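Hi V.,

You were right to ask for the full record rather than a summary. Here it is.
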Amino acid sequence: MKPSVLATAMGVLTLLACSKSDPSGSAPSASAASAPANVPPTATAPATAAAPAAPAAPAFVQKGIPAGKVVVGYIQDGKDPDQCAAVTDVPGKKDEFTKDGDKVAQMMKGKVVPACPTTSVVGTCNAGMGMLVNYSGPKWTADTAKKDCLAHPYQKWVD
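Predicted structure:
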C-alpha cells in the first residue's frame, strides 16, 4: 500500500475513533477535543499530509521552429524510433499535412505519429525541408546525436 494511502486511511480511522461518544458520559476537555488521542499535542502536521511533490518538469519546447512556421505534424523514423521529426510549415498547411502526411512519411521511410516523445530528448537537428529531428536517449547522447546530424550534408545542429 502506498504511504499516502496508508496515511489517509489512518487519518480517517483516527477521526472515526475520536468522533464516537464517550461511554462515561463526561464531555471531553477542549484540548482533548481538538487533537486525536494518538497524536501528541506538539504535532502540527495532519495525518493526511503528503510529502511535498517534486517540482514539475518544464514543458517541452520544440527548438528550431523558423519564424512564421508551426509544427504541422510528426514523423517517426521507421528504423530508429528514438528519432522523430517535427514537421514545420506555415499554419495553413496543417490540413494538407493531415491529408498527405502518410505519403511524406513513406518517402522518409517513417510513419506519421500523433506526437514525438519529449521526455528524453537530447538534441535537435534541422534536417531541411521543414524537418526538425529530435534525438532521444538513452540510445542517443547529445554528442552522438550531433555527430549523426552533422554527418549528413546540409543538416544543421540546433542549439
